[in-house]
Specification:
This protein is an alpha+beta fold. It is built from two helices and seven strands, in the order βββββαββα.
Length: about 150
């Protein structure tokens, strides 16, 4: 049986992001928290947290699931994050890590971090996001109307 820990979310599951509704009706609490010793990289449409001693923090939310939804939520989050325990093709690993609440206390939480091969590639080829916060990039501006701008 997997330990029943809260979840630390730092990307598309946060309020205002595209997968936030995925948590609707399934959580008791959500509060801002920090993941120390980690950096954040932008991925194609979602971020990756990479453990990095002495770095960070990554900003996110500590989410506590409703007891009656915990098992299903855990399975659904594993599926959403394409995490299969023991599968070396998984892009993420689910790890129990210490996160810091707003009051400075710590809690252990499930965190989906980049799997080692991806983490190594990100460290070698990508720049961490400044400030450890990820938001969905704004859509590109629409093209100007045909014929260019009109002046009176």
């Amino acid at each position: 049986m997997t330990e029943r820990l809260p979840f630390f979310v730092y990307g598309t599951l946060r309020p205002g992001e595209r997968n936030h509704a995925f948590l609707a009706g399934r959580v008791l609490t959500r509060a801002p928290a920090l993941l120390p010793a980690a950096v954040l990289y932008a991925g194609p449409g979602y971020p990756y947290a990479v453990r990095a001693p002495g770095a960070g923090p990554v900003h996110g939310d500590l989410v506590t699931a409703r007891p009656e939804t915990y098992g299903r939520l855990l399975a659904d989050l594993d599926h959403l994050e394409e995490y299969v325990p023991g599968d070396p093709r998984s892009l993420y690993l689910r790890e129990a890590l210490a996160v810091v609440r707003e009051d400075g206390s710590t809690a252990r939480a499930w965190v989906y971090v980049a799997a080692p091969p991806l983490a190594a590639r990100l460290r070698a080829t990508a720049e961490p996001l400044r400030g450890g916060t990820w938001v969905t990039p704004a859509p590109p501006a629409p093209p100007p109307p045909p014929g260019g701008p009109r002046t009176p």
